[in-house]
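Go through this one:
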Amino acid sequence: MKPSVVLITGASRGIGEALALALLGRGDCVVGLSRGVSEQTIAHEQFKAVNVDLSSLAEVEMAMHRLFETLTPDAISGITLVNNAAALAPLAPIEACASSDIAAHLHVGTAAPVLLTSLFLQKTADWPVPRTVATLTSGLAGIPAASMSLYCASKAFLNMFTRCVREEQRLSPRPARVIAIDPGMAETDMQAYARSRQGESFPVGTLLQQAHDAGQVLAPRDVAERIVRLLDEHGADDRAVLKV
């Protein structure tokens, strides 16, 4: 049986790592695009690490060109891009954010997923296999939060970007499935860092701590399993943004 190929950004830790392990465990081929690599994922024969700095669009484009030189639709049953990587910092009022931090956040959180989606759809346009683009979003896309303007705005951008690309694909003779997935709250390094930043300028930190204390923060493995189930639903989606 031909394997499915899944490209995951930020597969070296957190939800990305857990998702990669879940897919590898069932026999999929996984390509991790990130600056680091997980010891657990790299141990699998069907895992390929692509070292790329997602804050550099030139690196992203070069990495995708090189990667698709090694892929062929004849050897696979389907291909998926998961835009998982995200930036959390800077967590501060916008007037306190350095220009370099603003640029880095927007490159990772918005520009990189847009470019990856564009290149993925270009390079697989004629492939006679199911194609999916899934972008991880957040409930904060619809909730204004102090000191999180960049993060909230980036996720809101990705939700609208997903809706627009879905409309474009409906006009395509070989449409790809395009969705955004809200994974909810997961126990990741980003979540722990956000909880640690409690104070008047960052009230969300207190709310996150309360959710953690109430047992509402899921383990990455549990979130990954739910994401896999959503990815396996190859039918038409009623909504652009799905929740695990």
The chain has a mean pLDDT of 92.
